[in-house]
Amino acid sequence: MKRKYKRVLFHSAGKTVMFEMENGWFYNVDMRQHKIFVFWLPDFCIKFNPYVEDDVPEDVKQKAIKLLDVLPLETAMIGRLYERKYGRKYIEGTPNLDRIDARKKGLLKPGF
Question: Which of 1, 17, 42, 92 could be joined to 64 by an S-S link, Cβ 3.0–4.6 Å?
């Protein structure tokens, strides 16, 4: 299954790149640990990383795009609704229930 992204959100010192995926999740490609960490919202990653930049260099972006399909997924931060239905581990192909719920309630900024 090919992992498709909507847009590149940011990078951190050229070592990690955060993607908004078409499946509604946010994948943080970590090139140091050779894993993809899955978040239900990117805010959790931004709050604890002081080196986040919006302008992703093209070479870093292309490398991260290539790694999207080959690196293993690691659950980083999922929401409570998802956890109640599917358990504590992210399962590829399942919907981001907490993001859908937050959108319905008007709790997310436009574009998220």
Answer: 17
